[in-house]
Design a protein that fits this description.
This protein has 276 residues and is α/β, with parallel strands linked by helices. It folds into two domains: 1-53; 71-262, Vaccinia Virus protein VP39 (Rossmann fold, 3-Layer(aba) Sandwich). It is 42% helix and 14% strand. The chain has ten helices and seven strands. The protein has helices at 2-31, 43-50, 55-65, 75-88, 102-108, 121-130, 148-154, 180-184, 206-217, 234-245, and strands spanning 92-96, 113-118, 135-138, 189-192, 223-229, 249-253, 256-262. A seven-stranded mixed sheet has the order 3-2-1-4-5-7-6, with helices on both faces. The longest helix is centred in the first third of the chain and has 30 residues, at 2-31. The protein starts with a helix and ends in a 14-residue tail after the last strand.
């Protein structure tokens, strides 16, 4: 079994590295596309600019080329988020969870702001030591995945249908103890890939998904692209449909579901339902 799986893992890594290299090349070309040589005298400086790889992208290439692991999401899943980042970056990108793909997300949002929220402090320390450039905040959750059914029922109450700042919400699913930056930033893209919520262990993503829905709907203007990973699991599937809304689903790829959520504050009718 080992002899068969080893080549498979190597091939997977080679595929990912090839894919990631092409992404990096694309980002570099796009970021330099605004530079146009005006005359002969500007030609040398133009060349020197184009030949430089941005530090964040160079770090990513080295990191993944020398690593024995590959990111949690497969190529088709990563491609869906990349497509959105191509249109929106540089942007504000909020990611729930630190993983082997964190440096990749920060790099693909080149020149934007990518923020990671992680509840495992030991893991955070280790990642910060390896990649100090990442912007990471420690968070905590006070739920248990075994409360999922109870919380889903509570989410049907009227107070949970009010689109407000999570900090002033009366809904028991609203998380109010995140760092201020989470509530005070207009997020363009949000990835929900944490906290832990498998095998009946961990806090689960019930409250996280609900709170993300509030952040997106209470945004001052525009739309928020939200990605929820692990939708093959009951909590991720049920809660994302209930609180991010079926009507806002754009597509699914593998274990990833993509929502495009408009601001409810800019919709003309004040009677806009929580889910249309």
């Amino acid at each position: 079994m080992k002899s068969k799986s080893q080549p498979s893992m190597i091939n997977l890594k080679l595929m990912f590295l090839s894919f990631f290299f092409l992404l990096v090349l694309y980002v570099i070309l796009r970021s330099n596309s605004s530079f146009q040589p005006i005359g002969r005298s500007s030609y040398p400086s133009f060349l020197s600019i184009c030949n430089k790889i941005p530090p964040s992208l160079a770090t990513s290439l080295v990191h993944y080329a020398t690593s024995n692991i590959t990111p949690q999401q497969d190529l088709q899943e990563v491609s869906r988020t990349l497509r959105v980042l191509e249109k929106k970056s540089p942007c504000n990108f909020l990611v729930f969870g630190l993983g082997f793909d964190s440096l990749m997300w920060a790099s693909l949002n080149h020149r934007g702001r990518t923020v990671f929220l992680e509840d495992n402090k030991n893991w955070t320390k280790m990642v910060k030591k390896q990649v100090p450039s990442l912007e990471i905040y420690d968070v905590s959750y006070n739920t248990d995945i075994k409360q999922a059914d109870e919380l889903l029922y509570a989410g049907k109450s009227e107070e949970c249908k009010d689109v407000v700042d999570p900090r002033s919400s009366k809904c028991p699913l609203a998380i109010k103890n995140f760092p201020r930056i989470v509530y005070e930033t207009e997020w363009d893209v949000i990835m929900v890939d944490a906290p832990v919520g498998s095998y009946n262990k961990g806090p689960g993503r019930m409250n996280t998904i609900y709170t993300v829905g509030l952040l997106a709907k209470n945004k001052e203007d525009g739309e928020t692209d939200v990605f929820v990973h692990d939708i093959e699991r009951k909590v991720e599937d049920t809660f994302s449909r209930a609180f991010l809304c079926d009507a806002y689903i754009i597509e699914e790829a593998g274990r990833l579901r993509h929502f495009n959520i408009p601001s409810h504050r800019t919709i003309a009718s004040s009677r806009t339902p929580f889910c249309p």
